[in-house]
Write a structure and sequence with these properties.
single chain, 493 residues, alpha/beta, Rossmann fold, 3 domains, five-stranded parallel beta sheet, 14 helices
Amino acid sequence: MQLSIRNLSFMYEGSWEPVFENLNINLDTRWKLGLIGRNGRGKTTLLSLMLGKHPYQGVIENPLTPVYFPFEVEDPTQLTLFVMQQAAPEAEDWQLMREMNLLKVTEDALYRPFDTLSKGEQTKALLCALFAREDAYPLIDEPTNHLDQHGRELVADYLRGKDGFLLVSHDRAFLNRCIDHVFSLNRSDAWVMQGNYDTWEKRLNDQNAYELARNEDLKKDISRLTESARRTAAWSEKVEKGKFHVAESEVASLDRGYVGARAAAMMKKSVNTLKRRERAIEEKKSLLKNVEQVGELKLTVLDHPKKVLISVQDGKVSYDGRNVCENIHFEIRQGDRVALTGANGAGKSSILKTLCGLGDALTGDVRIATGLIISHVPQETDALSGGMRDYIRQRQLDETLFKAILRNMDFEREAFDRDLSTLSQGQKKKILLASSLCVPAHLYVWDEPLNYIDVLSRVQVEQLIQQCSPTLLLVEHDKVFLENVCTREAIIL
């Protein structure tokens, strides 16, 4: 069955630029379809429009019922079974159980309050409810954000066995494992292709190389046409003046009417020539748009007199008098790039917060080098609100550097003037990451820094770390990213 989008146009109220303008695309609802594009290109917006959440111009025809993931849970204190039944009201209990077995969710989770499940368990339970529905076309928005690496592999294999869905994700390994088509929202167009993330990346790189070479030719054409237009304008001006400045020796023999008519004809011709060249310039300038640029990011790494910056021995993490994990042992030396790994709920975020002075859940023999400057990226973005200038002032950031980093991560200029609370999750995460990169530090502590961030920006951050070699302690589940930047891992059991 075909999902058809025709002449789709949409702009948020108060925005300067449309999110979509005359978008036309045809999709097969049986495809395992990955929706890829940079933050702010309209991925989540498109899902919202397909759900009918905003008025738009154009047509979206879907033969199935679009259903959004994650399902909004109104009362998380209910039993998980009741939450799943609300998410899939037409599904039988045996259908829910079938999906739970496929995702390896234990039956006892059904009879526990939903809010007592880990974030990863909640994700799996809601996915089970989504695919227990027989009438649904699943619109899956960032399902991996609360899944550890094992959970991502499990969910990817689960999705690969399904008939069709539209999936937004920025995890390259995850996409490679579960999709068979890509829907790409680009800078100035959109296209659909068969394949996975690697196939899409190769096409994008080939297209970028072609566009860059073409742009160089276009710039030369623009320069040539601009110079020609300048000469035409000068010649036109000379012709116009000429009809009023006839040499005295020729006055008697010339017909002033003839001279004026001839000058007017030449003037009209030169003006038309000038207009054609100006139109050609504008047309060629309009073609210089579709290169997906990956700008350079900047980072200032400070040197510390101590080799060992952090040491944790016999550590444990406790909440409300309950030990979450024990026997924690690791140390961070200058130049290390350490991935803190472990299952969901193992206490990784609590360890990072304690080391940054934002909590006390980690106890034991914890030693932090004197005078250590830490730059932190928190996991959550909910605290972001207010204006961009207020945010910059409160954190005493270099405004020029901060905005340059954001622009290099393709952060839209018009977003600088919006309240931070209205930005997308990806845009908010970029603000937190750019803020950290602005701070010269001995150690960078990042808690899931890539959540919601587009794949091209992930590549930028990888390149930055490889180039600058900062000392880094992070929690992250993007397998490709970890393989590319980390020197070792510290496992929390």
